[in-house]
Structure formats: C-alpha cells, structure tokens
Design a protein that fits this description.
single chain, mainly alpha, Methane Monooxygenase Hydroxylase, Chain G, domain 1
Length: 712
C-alpha cells in the first residue's frame, strides 16, 4: 500500500471523518425527513438548533458530551427567547449582543467544552438577529430550536452507544501515527544530510501533537468507567496499548545523544546511516500496526527485526575491534532499538494473541484516574476571573466590545440581508491570544475567498439541481470532517455548501457570494485590529510562567529518582505521573514558543534564548527519562554518595532557576547515601549512571544561564 493511499484510507477511518459524518447526518436528517411531509420550514428550524449544538460535540467521554450538550440546550433556549424579543428594538438587541458576548466568552474559564457551550449560545443569538417574526411566535420558534438541539444530542449519544469503543480506538490509532512521525524525526538525526538544529525544531513541534493526542486518549480511556473497570478484552486491549504507547514514547524521548559528536566520530563507518534506516523500518512497522488499530482490522504479518538487529550488533562489534575509540554509544543505541522492538511486539501481540493470558499478565497497578485533569465548575472560578489580571476576562471584554462594534457597523451600513456574517466572523476568529487570532483570521479569509470561487463556478456552470444537491452534501461532509484537522480546508468546503444551500432556499444567488466575502473581510479586519489594540495578550508576558512550570516538573522527576536511590519506595504511578507532567509542560512550552514566533517582531522578546531553552529542556527530559527507566527496571537502591551528590546539585540549580523565573521550588529531603565500610568497586552500570547524571548536571547549568538572561 503506497503512503498516499494509506493516508487517504486513514482519513476515512479516522475520528475526523466519523465526526463529519455524524454531524452532517444530525443536521440534515430533520430537514430531509420533514420535507417529505411538506414541513421544510420546520425542518430547517430544527436543523438550526442541531447546527448550534454540534459545536459542543467535541471528542471526549460520552458523559462529558451529554452534560455539555444538555447545558448547551438550556442556554440555546434562553438565548433564543431573549433574542426573539430583544430584536424588536435595535438598542435592546445591541445591549444583548454586548452582554451575552461577554458572558458566554467567559465560559472559557471552565475549559474547552464549556467554551464551546458559550459559542453555541452566541451562534443562535447571531442566527436569530435578523429573523422576522411576531412576538407571539418567539416562544414557539425557540422551542423548535430547542427540539433541534435535543434531537442532535440524542442522535449523537445513540451514535456513540452503538460502538462505545470506536472513538477511543480511532484516537489511539491517530496517536500511533503521531508517534510514528516523531520517531521518523528522531531517525533523521542519524542521517548525515540532516540539519540538526532544523530537526530539533521539527521534533519539539511534533511533540506538541503527540502530547495533545495523548491527552485526548487519556480523557477517552481513563475518564470512562466502561474502559477502566470493564473486564472485556476490548477495553483491556485499548488501555494496555495506550500504556505501552506512552512507555514507547518515553523510550523514544530517552534515546538522545550528542548527534554532532557521534557523526564526527563514526562518519567513515556508515553505521549511523544503517541505524537511521533501521529506525525508519521500525517506524513503518509501527505505522502498519497503527493503521490496523485505526481501521479495526488484524495485522498479521509483523516483520522480524531480530536478524536485522543481530547484523547491526556484528557491525558495531567490528567497529569496536577495528578502532581504538569506544563504541559504547553504539551499543547503547542498539539496546534502545531492541527495547523499541520489544514494545512494538507487545502492542502487536495484544491484537493477535488468541489467549487472554497476555492481557492478565500485563495488567498493572497503575491508578488511571490520576492521569486525567479534573475541571472545577464551582461559581467562584467564574467570579475569581473578574479582573484585568485574568486572560479570560480580557478576552471576554475584547469579544464583547468588538461584537458591539461589528453589530453597529452591520446595522449602520446595511451590508445586506445577512449582515450577521460580520458577527459570525468575529466570534469564530477572536481567540484569547494574538497569534491564534491572527492564524484563524488568515485561514478564514483564505478559505472564504477560495470557497466563494468554487461556489460561483458551480452555480454558473452546473445548473442541474440534483448534481448541485449532491455537491452540497459532499461540501457539508468535508466542512465538518476538516474543522479540527485543517480549518482552511473546512472553510473552503463550508462556503460553497452555504452558497448552494441559500440557492435552494431561494435566498439570493451570485450576489450572496459578494455579500459573504465582503462581510467576512469586514469582520476579519475588525477582529484583527481588536486583537492588536484591545487588551492584547502577548506570549512574552506569560512565557516565564511556562518556563518555571517545566523546570518544576523536571525537578519533581529528578526528586523521584533521588528518592528511589536512597531507598524510599516510589510507585509506578508516581513515576508515570511525574513523567506525564514533564511531557505535558514541555509540550505547553513548545506550543507557547511556536505562537510567539507568529507574533510581531517587536513582541518576540528573548526569542533565541527561549528557543535554546526549549531544545535544552528536551535534552534534559530525555536524559532524565533514560535514568528513570534504568532505575525503575533495575531496581537500583542505596547509590554511592557521589551519584546522590550529582542529583542534589542538579535539583538545587534547577530550583534556583525556577525561583528566578517566579516559580516554585521542590526541595529533596531524603536520606544521605553513606559509604559502606567496604565500598564495592563501581560497576559498569554505576559508571554509566554517573556519566548520565553528570550530563544532566551540565544541562541544568546551561538552562540556568539561559534562564538568567531571560529573567533579566
């Protein structure tokens, strides 16, 4: 199967396409069914409610979807009734737009799903602004919209109830694909033609995607009682596969070396190119297994890498015998490759073992519920953010003010019959941070213009209504399938879908295209100016917090290692929680850095130092993961005083760095490692551990120097 064919098939098996299909059906069915009974207007109103509620139907546990959509339906009805009466007077409507824009934008303090509830409420307000109806019709119309929202909620829940494991399986398969990309980037470090600095940039960027997908899978698996508590093979396989995937990602992260040095050292042997090729072959194998998970099929033709690894071992031994230089680093790489191969075999066996014994043997005592974050929905969270120190408050205030301006412009200049598109554009584009708003602005404009051209060509040159309707369905499916995957493509599909729909509704024709583009440009312009001038949020204002948090998480990881080697019991759960925190905080820092690079040059403070910090943090967490893995596997206790001294030194340096950046300290208060009366000679493992901890100490000092420059 070619790469292009596999990518296309992966898309159709993915949760993106599944979401697009579910949303499209949930919106279309009321209108199509009621059209058969000559109740098309009623069907359209029901579909309008479904359009608003589908915004809340984001990936996550079913119980969260249910609660979110239930809250969304309540808000939908209240806002619909309010708008129905407020629209009778332009001033009361303007007041509603201002107040509701602020109120529902503040929902972001309760997380992404709550923010989508706020977006759904604002959508129905915008859609009803220009709806002509008598006061006596408001309650009935609002109840119909509510019925459409309830219909979509029930349809979505039934959709997931039929195949309760499918969403988790899809997310898991997509997570494998992310790790495959990460592994390929790591493999490229061994190839002499690869630019090391450029490859680091790709690596930290891909780490963001891996972390985000892992969080999504954690939510689906560990927040669901069905997945964690059920004793079915299906649920156990999903949980164990994800646990092994996270362990595999740790191993890939931990395989860090001084690539410039080993390239120089072994440049004439050709061994590094062979290592890179083997890693790429393993990535291919993992990709095939991931595709099988995603497509819910069996993959039975696993490649046996043992002969390949034996040949590699023979060549590494030959290099060691032929050269005076040590080949220890090559042996360490070979061990990493064997460990990676073992993890791939484990995941393969979960899906191809005829016995459940392997699942029972691999069951461990990890407390999964600790690996998901718990959102506080108490009222005080909302009111605690009523301050200009709160980014959420500034965002809500900005949205409120900009929506009032957009509303005033739309009403004052009578832009057309669908001037609500100005407000719709503003709501979609404005994000808490400048870089996100700028990115969404560009995507919205590009997609609308491109989609408008496609819509015009279809309406002008394809008069057949059956073909137009078929194309509308394809565009609708594409719009909802790509809305999380690629927003530009989503808008390109969305625009002709809306234009053809309006044509069928008898509302305008080609002039609708011009109106939509003009309204989008006006809304985009207002949103862009506002994101730059009204309480702008720049990354340099918050980057120190991200730096301090990632240092604190690294200190916590090192403290767990120190506690273990002084004899204190540290559980597997404690280690994995510390590891997860390091990777999540590192991904957050990398994401903040990427957002900073898209901001105006004048706002990119210490950009080079922060880039160095991101790379050094990756190296630090990689080496810490290596040490943690060796200690937990080999059960090392009662280390020598010099080893503990190195650990304490790194912890102290990082604690001081965190303090300078305004972060917290985490002191290690463990036992002292006292030398025995007859100190045994250091083993190879002891020497290797000391070498690794010495490097961690060096990296910690490098991070401290860069942090000093940033703190100033």
């Amino acid at each position: 199967m070619t790469i292009q064919t596999k990518e296309i098939k992966s898309f159709f098996f993915s949760q993106y396409f599944s979401d697009g299909l579910r949303i499209s059906l949930g919106i279309l069915l009321p209108a199509l069914v009621l059209q058969q009974f000559n109740q098309f207007e009623l069907g359209i109103t029901l579909s309008l409610g479904a359009i608003c509620i589908c915004v809340i139907d984001n990936p996550g546990p079913v119980v969260h979807k249910r609660n979110g959509m239930a809250a969304g339906n309540l808000c939908l009805f209240v806002v619909a009734v309010t708008t129905g009466f407020a629209r009778l007077n332009v001033y009361t409507l303007g007041l509603e737009v201002t107040v509701f824009s602020f109120l529902f934008s503040m929902f972001i303090v309760y997380g992404n799903r709550a923010a989508s509830v706020g977006t759904a409420a604002l959508l129905i307000m915008i859609f009803m602004m220009d709806k002509e109806m008598k006061p006596a019709e408001v309650l009935g119309y609002s109840a119909t919209i509510l019925a459409g929202g309830v219909w979509y909620m029930l349809f979505s829940l039934v959709f997931f109830g039929i195949r309760p494991y499918r969403a988790a399986q899809q997310a898991l398969g997509e997570n494998v694909a992310d790790i495959v990309k990460f592994l390929r980037i790591k493999a490229d470090f061994y190839l002499p033609e690869t630019d090391i600095d450029d490859n680091y940039h790709k690596l930290v960027s891909q780490q963001i995607h891996v972390s985000q997908h892992q969080d999504a899978v954690r939510e689906l698996l560990f927040r669901s009682r069905v997945m964690v508590r059920e004793s079915t093979n299906a649920s156990r396989i999903l949980v164990l596969t994800f646990v092994d995937l996270v362990d595999m990602f740790e191993q890939i992260m931990a395989t860090h070396y001084d690539y410039a040095q080993i390239r120089e050292k072994f440049k004439d042997t050709g061994i590094l190119t062979e290592i890179g090729q083997v890693v790429h072959l393993m990535a291919n194998e993992l990709e095939n297994i991931g595709f099988a998970i995603l497509s819910n099929t069996r993959y039975k033709h696993k490649v046996d890498f043992n002969p390949v690894l034996e040949q590699l071992k023979t060549k590494i031994d030959t290099i060691g015998n032929a050269n005076e230089t040590s080949n220890l680093v090559l042996k360490k790489i070979l061990i990493n490759l064997r460990d990676l191969n073992k993890e791939i075999e484990n995941i393969f066996n979960y899906y191809n073992s005829s016995s459940s014994k392997i699942l029972i043997e691999n069951n461990n005592d990890v407390e999964y519920s600790k690996f998901v974050t718990h959102q506080d929905y108490e009222p005080h969270v909302f009111f605690d953010n009523f301050s200009l120190d709160s980014a959420a408050f500034k965002h809500a205030f900005r949205v409120s003010l900009v929506c009032l301006v957009g509303f005033t412009v739309a009403k004052a200049f009578a832009l057309g019959h669908h001037s609500y598109w100005v407000l719709l554009t503003i709501i979609v584009i404005l994000k808490p941070g400048f870089s996100l708003s700028k990115q969404r602005n560009y995507q919205r404009l590009t997609g609308t213009i491109g989609g408008g051209v496609i819509g015009i060509l279809i309406l002008m040159f394809i008069p057949n209504t059956d073909v137009q309707f078929t194309l509308m369905l394809v565009f609708m499916l594409g719009a909802y399938s790509f809305q999380r995957l690629n927003y530009v493509v989503s808008v390109v599909f969305m625009t002709p879908y809306v234009l053809i729909l309006f044509k069928f509704l008898g509302i305008g024709h080609l002039d609708i295209v011009e109106e939509r583009v003009i309204d989008t440009v006006i809304g985009s312009t207002i949103a862009f100016i506002a994101s730059y001038l009204i309480f702008p949020t720049w990354e340099f204002e918050q980057i120190k917090t991200s730096l301090a948090e990632v240092i604190y998480s690294n200190v916590n990881y090192l403290v767990k290692i120190a506690q273990t080697i002084t004899g204190k019991t540290v559980t597997t759960t404690d280690y994995k929680l510390a590891r997860k925190d390091v990777y999540v905080k590192s991904a957050n820092l990398s994401a903040a850095f990427e957002r900073m690079t898209s901001e105006p040059k004048s706002k990119q403070r210490n950009i080079k130092d922060i880039h160095k910090f991101v790379v050094l943090n990756h190296i630090l967490s990689s080496y810490t993961a290596t040490v943690a893995s060796e200690i937990t596997v080999k059960g090392m206790h009662k280390a020598t005083p010099d080893i503990l001294k190195l650990l304490k030194k790194s912890i102290a340096v990082l604690n001081e760095t965190s303090k300078k950046l305004g972060g917290d300290r985490l002191e290690f208060t463990g036992e002292k490692a006292e030398p025995a009366e007859e100190q045994p000679a250091p083993t190879v493992t002891d020497n290797l551990l000391k070498e690794q901890l010495d490097f961690i100490s060096k990296i910690s000092n490098d991070i401290a120097k860069i942090a000093d420059d940033i703190a100033k």
